[in-house]
Amino acid sequence: MDKVYSTLMNYLLSIGWGVVGALTMSLSLGLLIKIFDWMTPIDEWKEIEKGNVCVAIILAAVILAFGIVIGCAIHGS
Predict the structure, then answer these.
(1) pTM across the whole model
(2) Local structure of residue 41 (DSSP, 8 states)
(3) pLDDT tops 90 at residue 60
(4) What is the dihedral of CA 61, 66, 67, 68, to 10 degrees?
(5) Can you list the positions of beta strands (E) in the chain?
(6) How many CB atoms within 10 Å of residue 23?
(7) What SS3 class is residue 45?
(8) CA 32/CA 20 separation, integer angstroms
């Protein structure tokens, strides 16, 4: 019975840390986009609504770069 309890606790801890990680990533990605929007002289969202694909590609590149940096930080060497 003790082994079942230990396994269940490990599963619950893994799910809990997964939820914490997902919330942290969503908040930090939102913060990154706000900072990027603040640093650039144009309003990216209005340009994307107008159909400016170049701005959308740049914003996608920023998001992918953020994911690569976080992935390297998690993976280590």
Answers:
(1) 0.72
(2) S
(3) yes
(4) 90
(5) none
(6) 10
(7) helix
(8) 18
Distances (CA, A) of 68 to 13, 65, 77: 25, 5, 14
Please check whether residue 29 is in contact with residue 63, taking contact to mean a CB–CB distance below 8 angstroms: yes
Q: Supply angle C-alpha 35, 20, 44, rounded to 5.
A: 20
Q: Which residue has the tokens 């986009």?
A: 33
Write the pLDDT tens digit of every residue in 12-40: 999 999 999 889 999 999 999 999 999 99
Look at residues 20, 26, 35 and name the one whose alpha carbon lies nearest to residue 67. 26
Q: Which two tokens stand for residue 34?
A: 């706000």
Q: Which two tokens stand for residue 12?
A: 């619950």
Provide CB contacts within 8 A for 42, sequence distance 6+.
55
